[in-house]
Specification:
The complex is a heterodimer of chains A (195) and B (95). Chain A contains 4 helices and 12 strands; from the N terminus they run βββαβββαββαβββαβ. Chain A is of the alpha+beta class and 195 residues long. Chain A folds into 2 domains: 101 residues, Probable tRNA modification gtpase trme, domain 1 (Gyrase A, domain 2, 2-Layer Sandwich); 76 residues, Heterotetrameric sarcosine oxidase (Alpha-Beta Plaits). In chain A, helix 1 packs across helix 2. Classes of the chains: A alpha+beta (195), B alpha+beta (95). At the A-B interface, strand 9 of A face strand 2 of B. Chain B: One of its GO terms (molecular function) is sarcosine oxidase activity. Chain B: One of its GO terms (biological process) is tetrahydrofolate metabolic process. Chain B: This is Sarcosine oxidase subunit delta.
């Protein structure tokens, strides 16, 4: 299969940027080679859908707003009632989900080629992201594994907290380069590294 | 103004789109009562104080919400999913 092109293109410049002399506040990476699948449960099938996602991925969730889990390259999180992102580095993720999710449970949409995934990590990640999104990034309000849907101006973003200082941002592929530049500007103050 | 979405929690109004007055009742689709349709489409009571209205959380969970808001103070007294409100209204009719 053809290798997907990153939409970040020439704007992905590895190395240290901004006020890096004072230390690296955040590190920005593009996560590649992922399958990104949106799963939507019918209104009455949410508990059964969560069981099915658990059996396909090993990541079982409770039915509560914004809950999610992370295990290595795999992650699952909710961002709306009955709607989940299921992400894995295995190319057969969609096939595995389809084998356990019947049309009676809900629908599956492969977003792999529609989203760009940016990982923001480092001690100043909460600070930098708070400049862009009007949500609370502190760990008590945004626990590890959980997901949020919000926007930066008109660019939608699904955000999952990976650990105490890392977040994955899922943005529309066609807006990814613009968002990447904005993210770099926001991170200049604290110094950032692109890997 | 901050609207407390039942799924996403408190979010700035910039994430929401106003979807109009929630107190209107749509006439039966087969109705040819022109006055009723005219009232549904155009007539608004423009109250001061508490008002029931639909908002779409377009920048978040993309759910339609039924918001009770005081239009003179912007104080919000209730936010529920519009579909839950519609289901309970319908079951009230059936009961």
């Amino acid at each position: 299969m053809a290798e997907p092109q990153s939409p970040l293109g020439a704007n992905f410049v590895p190395g240290n940027h901004g006020n890096a002399a004072a230390g690296i506040g955040v590190t920005l990476r593009e996560r590649k080679g992922l399958s990104v699948i949106q799963v939507t449960a019918w209104r009455d099938a949410i508990p059964a859908m969560l069981t099915a996602i658990g059996s396909a991925t090993g990541l079982a969730l409770q039915n509560k707003p914004g809950l999610g889990r992370v295990a290595g390259e795999k992650s699952v999180f909710g961002f709306a009632p009955g709607r989940y992102f299921v992400v894995s580095a295995t190319p057969d993720l969609e096939t595995r989900l389809r084998s356990v999710i019947s049309p009676e449970l809900g629908t599956i949409i492969d977003l792999t080629h529609g989203r760009t995934v940016i990982r923001v990590s480092g001690p100043r990640s909460e600070w930098v992201l708070s400049k862009l999104f009007a949500i609370d990034f502190s760990e008590h309000a945004f626990p590890i594994g959980s997901g949020r849907a919000t926007l930066h101006h008109d660019i939608h973003a699904n955000i999952q907290r990976i650990d105490d200082e890392s977040f994955d941002l899922y943005v529309f592929r066609t807006f990814a380069r613009s968002f990447w530049l904005t993210l770099g500007h926001a991170a200049e103050e604290v110094g950032y590294r692109v890997e | 103004m901050i609207i407390k979405c039942p799924y996403c929690g408190p979010r700035d109004v910039i994430e929401f789109i106003y979807q109009g007055d929630a107190t209107r009742t749509r006439p039966e689709p087969a109705s040819d009562d022109r006055a009723a349709w005219n009232a549904y489409v155009y007539d608004r009571t423009n109250p001061s104080g508490s008002h029931s209205e639909y908002w779409l959380h377009s920048g978040g969970c993309r759910q339609h919400l039924l918001v009770t808001r005081d239009v003179s103070t912007h104080a919000i007294s209730s936010v529920v999913f519009a579909r839950d409100a519609a289901v309970s209204a319908k079951s009230g009719e059936l009961a």
